[in-house]
Design goal:
alpha/beta, Rossmann fold, 11 helices, 8 strands
């Protein structure tokens, strides 16, 4: 594993001819990921909720890397109608996709419901990405070394999926809902790996977490305590820049030796910062019953069935 501890973005192979889709690509980890993929020749589709911010992100990358292949497409992961519209248009434009990076998210807002009436964090982090992945799976299966990279968090290890109150009708904790959503991401990524393997699909499912990274996710949360502690107090002391936090997901998306079903995170103390390495999944993330139950529920809530035979 020594080579993983030394891994950095300069070791990304030539990505010419490969098509990447990155959700939440206009800022933070998504922007850092997009920048490196484009720098190494990849054609990147920026899937963003705000197209104006997406175009501004493209302009910034093009200033540093003229000729980079970048497209901006609107996607609101908290609205399943938007997910279907995005996937339909993208599939019409691209008969082949190589890598989907499920990166976008929201952190600890007051209780808010999605367009379909689900708790916002669970909808944006998990349901939207579950639906998007399933709707694009055929295009990914036609790709070269195709992968789905789902971005989790250290907080997934503190999470619990409350199947009896997923939408937090009875009780809502902003950070509790965030942890539930990130655990759902991780359960999904692991379950997807198992299903793809069983079906003999060429697509691989990998997971990554960024450690503790300074992004707008903490600074812009409406919850004052989270914004103060994570954004203003601990951030300047412990957080690494987004370019460093993106390394685990870049490794999962591009490194030839990256393995399906594995979670990659920083190699430093507490997995807070550092170069990517294989790290442990929470026991709940690999529990077969949790995986089965979440998968079936997600199919029901999104009305998306995976083409896995």
């Amino acid at each position: 594993m020594t080579e993983q501890r030394r891994w950095n973005a300069d070791l990304i192979p030539d990505l010419t001819g490969r098509v990447f889709v990155v959700t939440g690509a206009n800022s933070g980890l998504g922007l850092a990921t997009t920048r490196e993929l484009a720098r190494h020749g990849g054609h990147v589709v920026l899937a963003v909720r705000d197209e104006h911010k997406g175009r501004a992100a493209v302009d910034g990358i093009l200033r540093d890397h003229p000729g980079a292949l970048l497209d901006v497409r609107r996607l609101d992961l908290a609205d399943l109608d938007s997910v279907r519209d995005f996937a339909g248009k993208l599939s019409a434009e691209h008969p082949r996709l190589d890598v989907l990076v499920n990166n976008a998210g929201v952190m600890a807002p007051p209780r808010t419901l999605s367009a379909q009436g689900h708790e916002l964090q669970f909808a944006a982090h998990h349901l939207g990405h579950f639906a998007l992945t399933g709707l694009l799976l055929d295009r990914l299966a036609a790709g070269r070394d195709p992968r789905v990279v789902t971005v989790s968090s250290l907080e997934h290890r503190k999470g619990r999926i409350d199947f009896d109150d997923l939408d937090a009708v009875r009780r809502y904790s902003p950070m509790g809902a965030y942890r539930q959503a990130k655990l759902a991401n991780t359960v999904f990524g692991h379950a997807l790996h198992q299903r793809l393997t069983a079906a003999g699909s060429p697509v691989r499912s990998l997971l990554a977490h960024p450690g503790y990274t300074a992004t707008n996710l903490q600074k812009d949360t409406p919850v004052a305590f989270v914004r103060l502690v994570f954004g203003r107090v601990l951030g300047p002391l412990l957080a690494q820049p987004a370019a460093s936090g993106a390394l685990p997901q870049l490794y999962a998306a591009t490194a030839p030796e990256a393995e399906g079903g594995v979670l990659y995170g920083p190699d430093g103390p507490g997995e807070l910062r550092g170069a990517p390495k294989r790290v442990a999944l929470a026991p709940a993330a690999t529990d077969p019953e949790t995986g089965r139950r979440l998968w079936e529920l997600s199919e029901s809530l999104t009305e998306v069935r995976y083409p896995l035979g």
